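Running this now, will post back.
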Amino acid sequence: MRNGEIRIRDAGICYRLYREKVSTLKEAVVQRFRHLRSAEMFWALRHVTLAVQPGESIALVGHNGSGKSTLLKMVAGVLQPNEGAVEVAGRISPMIELGAGFDPELTGRDNIYLNGALLGFSRKQMEAKFDGIVAFAELADFIDMPIKNYSSGMYARLGFAIAQDVEPQILIIDEVLAVGDERFQAKCMARIRDFRSAGVTFCYVSHSFDSARQLCPRAAVLHHGRLAFDGPVEQAWERYRQLQLGPAPGPHIQTG
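Update: finished.
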């Protein structure tokens, strides 16, 4: 595989659902094995096959709960598939959840070094990047404040500033560009275009057709955990709207 390439083959992720209520520890112990036998398996994703070539930009589209964020977490390595296979080559810079990887008790400064370590960078390497990250986030006056006191917009700015300055080969963003003022959103869009020009692979979850169309010529539509369409972004949005108007299928649940 080449750096920046993503291969998803017949992948699925499921969770156990327990319907019986347990009110005491004794009941939990006594019913443990019966629970295991009677648990239902909910498939958040099932039979998803998708290939993204190095330098491609793809939007993931679908209603809330369709599996978009689950798919991104699978690509980022946060979740492992229960079936099928996921192969990813290259350094990934994920912005999947607002503030993911941040310690709210630490300052913005400490969280920059913490996130850098999680992404495989040494403290010395992050020291070289520090001023650029702070300048991009526009948080110089607040960088030594505990981030539990940050607004959601400040969280997003710091998170994106770190993600954009760690030399990713794959950039993953889950709707977080919707947070922050219009000027900072435009700044983030411009930085993503720079990444695209440099050949960085880009996966983007969005409910905004305009932003998806600006950034991604291709889109994949997820519907109740299944891949419903993969192709040009305009056609993908038409398919998304059709699925919204149609009857919703039942969830993929099996008793196990």
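The radius of gyration is 20 Å. More later if anyone needs it.
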